[in-house]
Amino acid sequence: MADIIKELFWLPREEQEDILDNLSREYNPLEIDGEVFMVPKEVTNLIDSLVLQVNKLRVKVGEMGKIGKESY
User: Fold this and answer.
1) Cβ neighbourhood burial of 27 (10 Å; 0-12, 13-18, 19+)
2) Does residue 69 surpass a pLDDT of 70?
3) What is the mean pLDDT of residues 49-72?
4) Please, what's the b/e burial string for 35-47 (b: 16 or more CB within 10 A of its CB; e: otherwise)?
5) Is the full-model pTM beyond 0.70?
6) For 11, phi and psi rounded to 5 degrees?
7) Kind and range of the H or E element at 58?
């Protein structure tokens, strides 16, 4: 038998399902401009994949440089 989560008991069923779905996901910290955001693991994987693709393109065209926002 499942335990009751008291904080969710009075919420509509759809909201309960959304909350429980979010709780079942794995989140990773992502720092942007000194602020930390918790994002789903899939987003972190996408960003990592894009960084690798950019690095491969830079090697192909012979560019050197930093990935990300340039300092002003």
Assistant:
1) middle
2) no
3) 74
4) eeeebeeeeeeee
5) no
6) -80, 155
7) helix 41-61
For residue 43, what are the CA distances in angstroms to 17, 37, 57?
21, 11, 21
Question: What average pLDDT does range 13-42 have in this prediction?
Answer: 90
State the average pLDDT over residues 18-41.
Answer: 90
Residue 36 CA, chain-centre distance (Å), reads 11
**Number of other residues whose CB lies within 10 A of the CB of residue 57:** 10
> Of all helices (H) and strands (E), which one includes residue 21?
helix 13-23
Q: How many residues does the chain have?
A: 72
